[in-house]
Write a structure and sequence with these properties.
Length: about 425
């Protein structure tokens, strides 16, 4: 497609709620110099102007169809024209703006995440409908967290099952099971390594399915809003970022299916986010009871806050967060104790190793297994005699552990090692106790 877009076609016109399609697009439609251009080039300029003013794809197409017969005929004749031109317009704007790494990452995370979240349940999936809703809720929260944290351009996410469970009202085991489904059954995420402490780094898998790419194109406005850090511009984007809100997961009236239904509702006709027809009807009734399907994108978080207070969901999660914080603190305390004990053992073994090197100057090194049984039988009493009275009771374990390691390295079999270690431990402990 030849590009005839001018820099003047890209405008900064505030948010979509502040401008109308007529104010943004009418000057281009009346531009006589462009009337002789091919339809795709005229549409490209219109989409660039519309997107730069934060108009949605539907708003641009709706206005163009209603005002220009030639462009309407071109769009009807070539169903794929709108997609190809809108995609070219977004690429042109990205090139002009020079998106940084964080914006590019948010765009790709939003693209892959929304396309999969809105897709039907994969065929042959060995997951129940209930588990599917739970898995998608975890995935949605994972993607929303990814978008929020994408400030440094890193494309891998640390996702703690214990912490995530508190956010979406699941146990750590249930979140771990959902992550396993997402990795092995759905294949929406993959392991990218370890962050230490048992924490796993996750990445989103690529969109290789043409259907998923079509789905991503259908919610391109939401993807751009998330990439630009302005989710209030689009209802799908605003809803996705509430994936961890307590009103969804801690109130009996709503739930994960209601959240998925609202995302699908704003995404447009044909989108289900894996929710069955029966569950969609039930979820819509719950949403309509609180007016959530008609609330403006920018007002959604505040409306959910109100629902959270009315249903006591905010207090229920607060209690769980306190309990989780106590569990985390207890885990940290135990970990600190373990590390202190490990460090003390390391230092004790280090001192024992140095001490045995000095002892070996008097009794010689550990005889190798190849030297025969008699060499070891002559060496052990000499060693025990030197150690007796020179090793404190608190250091016996470390000295004996180092001796055991040396015997194994010398090639002695386990029964022989156990017998020698037992003999030396008994003699050394007896002498240390008597000296005390």
């Amino acid at each position: 497609m030849a590009t005839t877009v001018r820099f003047s076609d890209a405008v900064s016109a505030g948010s979509a709620s502040e401008v109308s399609p007529a104010a943004v697009l009418a000057p281009l439609l009346r531009d006589r110099a462009r009337l002789s251009l091919p339809p795709d080039q005229r549409l490209l300029a219109l989409f660039v102007r519309g997107y730069s003013a934060h108009l949605s794809t539907a708003a641009v197409l709706g206005y163009v169809r209603s005002r220009d017969d030639a462009l309407r005929a071109a769009l009807d004749e070539s169903p794929g024209l709108a997609r190809s031109v809108s995609s070219a317009a977004r690429r042109w704007l990205r090139d002009v703006r020079g998106d940084d790494a964080a914006v590019r990452l948010r765009r790709e995370v939003a693209r892959r995440g929304l396309a999969r979240l809105l897709s039907p349940t994969p065929e042959g999936l060995k997951v129940s409908a209930r588990a599917d809703a739970t898995t998608r809720a975890v995935f949605a929260h994972m993607v929303s967290r990814w978008v929020e944290l994408a400030t440094d351009g890193k494309n891998a996410l640390i996702y703690s099952p214990a912490w995530a469970g508190v956010q979406v009202n699941l146990s750590a085991r249930q979140v771990t099971r959902a992550l396993s489904h997402l990795e092995k059954e759905y294949r929406w995420i993959r392991r990218a390594g370890s962050a230490g402490g048992g924490r796993i780094l996750w990445r989103l898998t690529q969109l290789n399915d043409p259907f998923l790419r079509e789905t991503a194109w259908a919610v391109a406005d939401a993807i751009d809003a998330l990439a630009d850090g302005q989710p209030e511009r689009d209802a799908v984007a605003a809803t996705l970022l509430t994936a961890g809100h307590h009103a969804w997961h801690y109130s009996k009236e709503l739930g994960s299916r209601a959240f998925l239904t609202l995302v699908a509702h704003h995404a447009g006709p044909g989108m289900t986010a894996g929710v069955s027809v029966t569950s969609l009807r039930t979820a819509r009734k719950a949403l309509d009871a609180y007016g959530l399907r008609t609330v403006a994108a920018e007002a959604l978080p505040a409306r959910l806050d109100t629902i959270g207070e009315e249903t006591l969901a905010v207090f229920i999660r607060a209690d769980r967060e306190v309990a989780h914080a106590a569990e985390v603190e207890e885990t940290r305390r135990k970990l600190a104790e373990f590390r202190a004990k490990r460090d003390a053992q390391y230092e004790a073994r280090k001192r024992a190793r140095a001490f045995l090197r000095q002892v070996h100057e008097h009794v010689g090194k550990v005889p190798a297994a190849a030297d025969g049984k008699q060499a070891l039988e002559q060496w052990v009493p000499r060693l025990a005699a030197v150690l007796a009275g020179r090793v404190a009771a608190s250091a016996v374990d470390a000295v004996v552990a180092e001796l055991e390691t040396a015997l194994v390295r010398a090639g002695h079999e386990q029964p022989v090692v156990a017998k020698v270690v037992g003999f030396v431990r008994a003699r050394t402990t007896e002498a240390a106790t008597a000296a005390a």
